[in-house]
Amino acid sequence: MITVNVELGERAYPIHIGVDLIHQTALFAPHIAGAGITIVTNTTVDPLYGTALRQALAPLGKRVETVVLPDGEAYKNWETLNQIFDALLSARADRKTTLIALGGGVTGDMTGFAAACYMRGVPFIQVPTTLLSQVDSSVGGKTGINHPLGKNMIGAFYQPQAVIADVGVLRTLPERELSAGIAEVIKTGAIADARFFAWIEANMAALNRCEPLALAEAVKRSCEIKASVVAADERESGLRAILNFGHTFGHAIEAGLGYGAWLHGEAVGCGMVLAADLSVRLGYLDEAVRRRLVEVIVAARLPVHAPALGEARYIELMRVDKKAEAGEIKFILLKRLGETLVTTAPDNAVRATLAAAV
Amino acid sequence: MITVNVELGERAYPIHIGVDLIHQTALFAPHIAGAGITIVTNTTVDPLYGTALRQALAPLGKRVETVVLPDGEAYKNWETLNQIFDALLSARADRKTTLIALGGGVTGDMTGFAAACYMRGVPFIQVPTTLLSQVDSSVGGKTGINHPLGKNMIGAFYQPQAVIADVGVLRTLPERELSAGIAEVIKTGAIADARFFAWIEANMAALNRCEPLALAEAVKRSCEIKASVVAADERESGLRAILNFGHTFGHAIEAGLGYGAWLHGEAVGCGMVLAADLSVRLGYLDEAVRRRLVEVIVAARLPVHAPALGEARYIELMRVDKKAEAGEIKFILLKRLGETLVTTAPDNAVRATLAAAV
Prior knowledge:
Two copies of one chain form a homodimer.
Chain A: E1 2-6, E2 13-18, H1 25-28, E3 36-42, H2 45-57, E4 63-69, H3 78-90, E5 98-103, H4 105-117, E6 124-128, H5 131-137, E7 142-147, E8 150-157, E9 162-166, H6 175-192, H7 194-208, H8 212-232, H9 247-257, H10 264-281, H11 287-299, H12 311-319, E10 331-336, E11 339-343, H13 347-357
Parallel strand pairs in A: 2-9, 3-4, 3-5, 5-6, 6-9
Antiparallel strand pairs in A: 1-2, 7-8, 10-11
Helix pairs in contact in A: 3-4, 5-6, 5-8, 6-7, 6-8, 6-10, 7-8, 9-10, 9-12, 10-11, 10-13, 12-13
């Protein structure tokens, strides 16, 4: 087992990474103070890992409830969130009740937001069961739900007590979701660490085969990088923006197609292709690096052609993104592997990128 | 104008108290950084003070939107909160948009919670228009909404940029709501400052007549006391519990009758009578002090007889209150004027208090 510590002062917490961690009572014990635990999971994950988690928690002698939500981004809304509140209140859960998120990013985001809001804040633990959530939503404290007019528009910054990232559970992950997770791993290498990027290129076959050691290394390095960025900018006032490389275009793809049509990681994969194209077009990035990035995205079995929403629609969607300020779109562009810049871009360059990418 | 500073490190903010402050552009200017402002108010307050506030903001040259919510505790729920999100998203409000709460406690709590959650946090300013919200919800950062199974069960700790407490606007406040605000003023004196309690006794007629100087003094001293308690315990882990004197019984009254039947301050007024009775019954408090407390509550035109919900129902309601832990009810009792203790109490003593109070 490897542990990455996210350094956030009194909100610091560990991310434990390894195989079969979900069975280890001792990993949960130090983080559960109250008398009750509520596991929040979904209809896909509960049959796979719900029993294992409940068995691991049983020796702690706590009252354990489980809330099983419908699975999918389409359910990341108030109605589903309210199912968690209903369950907590019906069980008379108090302020020391610990919530455990067992599932992917949607489960983690909703459980974290429920923990942030229930009685104005109760502790929670993340047990991410997708590669994407292990590398992405387990670091950063971003929680929330979607609104019909925008993704993640309602939420909170709220840190877990601990993250238990069991790469063993990824063996049941559909191939498409594995690839979506690899997209965020590629992103992390591209923006912050050229050596890690090269490691990803060299180990893509192992990652695609779901080899535990390769996955653990990818999760560890991704979490380390993201943790260092987040520690420097917990509330996303500046530096942290670089983590959104590929996300400006990616969010527009997701919103334009309707949430759930493409996986978040697929949209980010394609979004990186667009951001790299714009980077080259504006003279920041070498064409050779762009090509390496596109090749590794292809190798990860991710889409590299953007859906044909129309250029005007893309720009409209990006203007309402919550990273935009007063309608100005901020792009995270690449200068070289490991180095980014955040900037606005001329409309005609953005349109050219969109036209070239379809 | 008097200013009370709430010392919370980087979340510190001023409370400005005085007459006709709502017209003073200069009080708002330092706290509004972005290009847009969204005023959240209700159908009662908007016709009275909406125009005055918009005129005060006009010289700032910002885009100003107004969301007018239905008035009343019964609307302190997700559906109404979502009207704020709908308005913000429809106006394409960005992360630097400032929300201004113009109204009483319900408006302030919902606007603060909307500000806490919209894009994971935007700035907000409180312009409380009831005495209760000027002395109570303007200090402490508590925001939130009710759930059918409990009051304020969903919320966040989130501090405003500033509070503008204009005691001039209280002249349009219904008498019943003025009294409800005085209840919290009495509470503050009782738990923390015997001299202030004596000042309240001596000035009750002036407060009942809505005299601006008396109101300003009452708001100032209440905010000072509450601010010092909150500064020592922002997240309500200990000391801050004393602010809930009268609230354990009070919340049960509100929940038992259905939110809105009694005003919050009325329930707290009666709740203090019950808490004082229990304090005497358990040997902590002199009967003479209990009598002074009851007399000042009567002088404030507040109810001192509890609604007959039945003792079992009261206890059930108090057990599900969010101050309870694992079903144990924590009572804030009085030892003398200015001194409290937090404790559990034997069921039979609680039942005797309830039986005596109806």
